[in-house]
Amino acid sequence: MKRRDLIKLLERNGWWLKRNGGDHDIYTDGVANEPISRQREIKEAVAQAIIRRRGLK
């Protein structure tokens, strides 16, 4: 999955960029944090795990 597609999905569900880490950007919904790798392509299994864990639609 492309990184920008995952970020768009997060933002549509109320998440925003909290801060930039070393190799990851940290997104938050105000309660939970989710690190997103800065690689252009994110492995499909990792992207699906984030989507399931955060209940994204």
How would you describe the overall organization of this protein?
With 57 residues, the chain is of the alpha+beta class. 37% of the residues lie in helices and 26% in strands. A three-stranded antiparallel beta sheet has the order 1-2-3, covered by helices on one side. The longest helix is centred in the last third of the chain and has 11 residues, at 44-54. It is globular and about 25 Å long.
Q: Low-confidence segments, ≥5 residues, pLDDT <50? A: none
Q: Rough shape?
A: globular
Q: Give the SSE string.
A: HEEEH
Number of separate helices: 2
Radius of gyration: 10 Å
Mean pLDDT: 96
Number of strands: 3
Main beta sheet: strand number and arrangement? Answer: 3 strands, antiparallel
The largest sheet has its strands arranged as: 1-2-3
- Helix share, percent: 25-40%
Map the helices and strands.
Elements: H1 3-12, E1 16-20, E2 24-28, E3 33-37, H2 44-54
